[in-house]
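Worked example

This section walks through a single chain of length 123. The input is the sequence exactly as stored; nothing has been trimmed or padded.
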Amino acid sequence: ATLAAVVGFDLPDHAAGDSFNQLALLQGGKSSRSSLVHNTSKNHYAIRQGNWVLVDAPSGAVTKVPAWFDEQFDYPKNPHPAALYDLSRDLAQRRNLYADNPGKVEELRELLRQVRTRDRTRP
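Given that input, the structure is written out below as tokens.
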């Protein structure tokens, strides 16, 4: 959608379901996205909205991180079925807020469910 905007092409409504026009962002403005879905493995998703990230996977990560990495960089074990982080306070994603913020977890899970049901992120 960004490249289409650059060249002045109008995308049809059915095209580029996950593409947002980010031309304003490239020109120093704000992003046109309110959320971003990450999917790197079948049925394992993460969603970011504002400063919040929900990694909706049992370990808080899809791929197993080597034990030495967690030890060396002081990452605690995740006892929860998912992980929730506030990037404004924890950019390194060390403090899982899953148990402390069940409302935010449900809000982000519902947003993720809506995106997956629509099978696109762009309205």
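What to look for: The longest helix spans residues 102-118.
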